[in-house]
Amino acid sequence: MTTSNNKTMKAPGLWARKDSHVVRLLLVMAIWLIFMALTKPTRFYTLINFQTMASQFPEYGLMSLGVMLCMITGGIDLSPVAVANLVSVLMAMLLKELAPDGGLPGYAIPLVFLLGAAMGAALGIMNGILVSKVRIPPILATLGMSELLTGVAIVITGGAAVSKLPMEYATTINSKIAGLVPVQLVIFSVMAVLVWFLLSRTTFGTKLYLLGTNPQAARYSGLNNDRLLILTYMISGIAAALGGLVMLANYNSARANYGSVYVLQCILVVVLGGVSPSGGRGKISGVVLAILLLRMLETGINRFPQISSYYISLIWGGVLLLVMVLDYFSAYRGPRKRKTA
Amino acid sequence: MSDILLRASGIHKSFVGVHALKGVSLEIAPGEIHCLAGENGCGKSTLIKIISGVYQPDAGSIEFDGKRLDKITPIDAILLGIQVIYQDFSVFPNLTVMENLALNSELSNKRKVVNWKRMRQIAEEAVAKINFQVDLDALVGTLSVAQKQMVAISRALMFNARLIIMDEPTTALTRKEVQALFKVIMQLKAQGIAILFVSHKLNEVFEISERFTIFRNGELVVTGQTKDLDAAKFSYYMTGRAFSEEQFTATKLGDKPLLEVKNLGLAGAFSDISFSLRSGEILGITGLLDSGRSELALALFGIRQADSGEILIKGKKTAITCPQDAINNGLGLVPEDRLSEGLFLPRSIADNLIIAEVDRLANRFKVFDREKRQEEVDRLMKEFAIASPNANNACQTLSGGNQQRVVLGKWLACGLDILVLNGPTVGVDIGSKHDIHAILQNLAREGMGIIIISDDLPEVIQNCSRVIILKEGKIVQELDAAEATEQAILSKMM
Asked: B442-481 as b/e, with b when 16 or more CB fall inside 10 Å?
């Protein structure tokens, strides 16, 4: 029976079945874009609107990339927003130090990005050590870290926003390359390509998927599970730190509790993108689509002044559940029986 | 009352284009012990699920106690007295024995309030039926496999069972426990309960059943009296192939030991273990489940750390503190539990094959050399005759034997010198078992040192040039191939 199973696996339509999740996301996105085209063509389909979206979504988009990697290992990262805020608070202070009388030196922005990423990496490594060496369940370890880091940021700032930053930082990150592509989008794209490359072209990616599928077998295969986990959470920390630096530019200020809705949003985006919360499965294409979809939904709804922005949460939750239900029906109705046979 | 309790005839069942059952029939008389045998994937499980109402047949009929059953659900089947004890027993490990036993009847009586006294009474009655001695307040998760099975049997008996179907009930049991199980089965038979015993182990079929039925590829091959069956016929019916098992003799023994173990000990598992392994030989290590044999395997591979003694590899003292140490020193372990320790079932066959040597297929920035990776995958697929049209298919689409070959292939791809196998053919069908033995014998002839840890005595005797017998964590005897008979080993190991 098993050999005949293989035959069905090879049948045409494999591609469609394999990526059916991505196809469904594309479908939902297309429906939404058509709906916007029919209802608000002039207010949604403008270059400036798309540029605005492309400068906003990298905030949580970057964090989601990190959460995705953690979820592929079967874990989760609840600390990206806290990491982002702590990094942006400290970097905001650094920027003010670097430019006491207004003029920011040329090396300042690269320095801030390097230091910020390094800080993110260090915080991520701490998460990784708690998860792997100390064996705290990831959901608790990262929740604890999240509270801790938020607390540190509150203590440093006294709960207030760090503002009156040198203008150069915000204007540089908010500028558009060739007058067209927002810098935020470039940062996100670089990170997304990097994650794609890691997952599909390196041994790290293969090991990550296998670790997430079956940590026990990974250990028996001679993988260094602890090291893999620490690396994963480190990358997640870097992604979150970059997200924080984008937030810093977008708000031109930093605060301990910016973007706190992003925590759950990131998880929802990643799950909507087709990453299995139990680990071992998930693709970058799905996650990027989910990130874009969320932004388009939110921006689209904002184009209807009569609809309160309170509805965004409602619609977003609805879409998430809809895609999950569709997944359930496509995954479990047909092939389920075959699996157990 | 008819003299046939269950009659399934002309059953067909297909799953998405796979014809799993092609018109099979099965008859069981009341109080009969009937053995259903066949290789993995022959349709045994599908038939069980049809009889118990999990699946509906596409064609054919099922009669139970003279009544024709149409469209039954699992609940209907239970009410009729058909009980299935699955391999995992479907018990709740986090509840006590008492709760496990009483839960079903409490639920089916739609009781909302827990009455502990009544529950205890129900549970006591249930275990009394098979004289099962157990602490009713113990958590089921803490019981041994055999005890869990007895809990499942006790539970099955609570519903006036007429037919009990046991799906490979002996897989995880020790010899003694199998005997105890058989005793219970005989008791059930005496009470007029029919047993459908699903197994692919020849000696069990002989020992317990009166009649047998063998399936192959979804078809009925033969059904008849067990007394007319012998070993050669049995394997022929199961596989459609005739086998001649080859006795292994070490032809090219190395001069120096590859692996030397000196006074190795691990508290609570084994102590004072010393042996050596030369290249070209297959060393068997056998013993009962609690003899420390599995722990010894884990200690050699670095999953657990021995707390005394030393391990020498190629004459050099080697500290093995984690699996990476073992692999770097050329020692691999094929683990006991293929599903949870050996394989990544939902991932591709290719990933499963190359994972242990993955770093060799990449450049120094850990980026895959895709050509090299593909070549290696093709080579391994071919060398281990893995029956799949596409290496990117999920590993779970493979049969048990093929999966075991994937685990073997994973290690052999690394170019190891020493291979330790813990229960290499547990749950593997006869054909694949034969193939795996042939692969191992070949590897030894090519100069690898192999340790087979197994309690399958025919396997040990046939493949090993030396046998070490463990009992209660100590070596009690070492036999060479000439001395190693089943009787000699058994007398030392019990």
From this structure: ebbeeebbbbbbbbbbebbbbbbbbbbbbbebebebebeb
- Domain check: are B49 and B195 in the same one? yes
Burial of B273 (0-12, 13-18, 19+ CB in 10 A): buried
Helix H segments across B158-259? 175-190, 202-208, 231-239
The verdict on residue A275 lying in a domain is no
Which residue type is seen at A58? Answer: P
Do B181 and B115 share a domain, yes or no?
yes
CATH of the domain at B294: 3.40.50.300
Is there a domain that residue B47 lies in? yes
Contact A214 B343 (CB under 8 A): yes
> Is residue A96 within 8 Å of residue A216, measured between CB atoms?
no
Of B239, B266, B285, which residue sits at a domain end? B239
- Residue in A with minimal Cα distance to B409: A221
Q: Which domain holds residue A149?
A: 57-259
Q: Tell me whether B327 touches chain A (CB under 8 Å).
A: yes
Report the residue of chain B nearest A203, measured CA to CA. B366
Touching check for B19 and chain A: CB below 8 Å? yes
Q: What are phi and psi of A96, to 5 degrees?
A: -65, -35
Identify which of A6, A202, A223 has the shortest CB distance to residue B389: A6
One domain, residues B35 and B105: yes
- Residue B326 in any domain: the answer is yes
pLDDT per position as a tens digit, B377-398: 999 999 888 888 889 999 988 8
Kindly state whether A15 is in contact with chain B, defined as any CB-CB distance less than 8 angstroms: no
Domain count, chain A: 1
Any domain includes A190: yes
B221 with B301, same domain? no
Residue of A nearest to B359 (CA): A203
Residue B184 lies in a domain: yes
Closest residue of chain A to B21, computed from CA coordinates: A1
Contact between residue A89 and residue A123 where contact means Cβ atoms under 8 Å apart: no
B355 contacts chain A (CB < 8 A) = yes
Best of B347, B348, B402 to substitute, by most chain A Cβ atoms within 10 angstroms, is B347
Query: How is residue B138 annotated by DSSP?
Result: S
- Tell me, yes or no, whether B192 and B322 share the same domain: no
Mutation site, B353, B366, B377, B405, interface A, largest A CB count within 10 A: B366
Quick check: is A30 in a domain?
no
Choose among B20, B303, B322: nearest Cβ to A341.
Answer: B20
In tens, the pLDDT along B204-218 reads 888 888 999 999 888
Write down which residue in B209, B239, B269 finishes a domain.
B239
Residues 27-66 of B with CB under 8 A from A: 40-43, 45-46, 49, 55
Residues 6+ apart with CB under 8 A from A42: none
* Residues of the domain holding B89: 6-239
pLDDT tens track for A39-93: 988 889 999 999 999 999 999 999 999 999 999 999 999 999 999 999 999 999 9
What's the predicted TM-score (pTM) here?
0.79
